[in-house]
Write a structure and sequence with these properties.
308 residues, alpha/beta, 8-stranded mixed β-sheet, 3-stranded mixed β-sheet, 11 strands
């Protein structure tokens, strides 16, 4: 299943767990990119999938035997373990993480290659993440919950630096490999493990990068299309996800200091005020479903942050 390449510039890392439904089309979208295949490799890290992921990878290798494809199994369960394994196995100067339930546009790899190649001081970047629903977007979805549920990220069509507090989505992000020598690898206490929805490993990494003065940039032409199945639009998933977000934040901030955690508690109180203002706005514009969903989101987030 493995083809060798001497010195690829990009290592496209895919960390996957039981996503055989999507993995072939993702690999196909990478193989059909405009960038020369001599300039990149695909590093797929299978994190103990029990579905047909390996079979789908073999099918891809048979159909696209000119693509450098390297396949690994990471037995330590957890997305952060898989991401770190990808870094260790990557041969490229730049690693590009792509979600396993997505596809990319044809200019995706060329965009990252050009950006990093033209300036060796550039250390990290990310692009738009656009949701693609398998069903339809529910009526309760708003601007504020869409990013949460789908990971949507869109900042216009101009290359720019991410503003303070903002950072690329983890499923569409690129780093010069040397970054990890400066800030360390992904925190294995954070990130999803199996069906757990604990996260914050990307935020943890970008916070460490910011502390060292490392900048990251938005590249509008590196587009990831994130597939959203009906299962991610259920009440159960919404409750689990919103609770897990701040449970992750509690773990992350307490690992830094109690002061950091208390600061996060204070900011949560401020966000409650903003949420109630938004609820009233939705109420007077007869969008009560969207307003109520925001209240539920804030409630679950606070519960997770308090560890209840």
């Amino acid at each position: 299943m493995e083809h060798e390449i001497s010195k690829p510039y990009l290592s496209v890392i895919i960390c996957t767990y039981n996503r055989d439904k999507y993995i072939y089309n993702l690999l196909k979208s990478i193989a059909e990119n405009t960038l020369s295949k001599a300039k990149y490799e695909i590093v797929l890290v299978n994190n103990n999938s029990v579905d047909s992921t390996e079979m789908e990878c073999n099918r891809f290798c048979a159909d696209y035997d000119d693509v450098v494809f390297r396949y690994f199994i990471e037995t330590n369960q957890g997305l952060s373990y898989a991401r770190n394994r990808g870094i260790q196995e990557a041969k490229g100067k730049v690693v590009v993480y792509v979600d396993d339930d997505a596809t990319i546009n044809k200019e995706y790899l060329q965009t990252y290659y050009d950006f990093f190649e033209k300036d060796n001081k550039v250390e990290a970047a990310g692009g738009p993440i656009l949701p693609v629903y398998e069903t339809v977007e529910p009526k309760w979805m708003s601007h504020y919950t869409r990013q949460l549920i789908t990971g949507k990220l869109y900042m216009g069509n101009v290359v720019k630096e991410f503003t303070k507090g903002a950072f690329p989505g983890g499923g569409n992000a690129a780093y010069r490999k040397s970054v990890f020598d400066k800030v360390g690898l992904f925190n294995v206490d954070l990130g999803r493990k199996g069906t757990s929805l604990i996260g914050a490993e990307e935020k943890d990494l970008f916070d460490k990068m910011t502390a060292q003065g490392i900048k990251f940039f938005y590249l509008p032409k590196a587009i990831l299309y994130h597939i959203i199945p009906a299962s991610k639009l259920t009440e159960e998933h919404f409750d689990r996800l919103t609770y897990s977000i701040e449970k992750s934040e509690k773990i992350r901030t307490l690992s830094i200091s109690k002061k950091k955690y208390y600061s996060r508690l204070f900011s949560e109180a401020v966000k409650w005020v903003a949420t109630l203002v938004l609820w009233f706005k939705f109420f007077v514009t007869v969008n009560i479903q969207k307003g109520n969903k925001l209240i539920l989101f804030r409630y679950n987030v606070t519960k997770g942050l308090l560890g209840r």
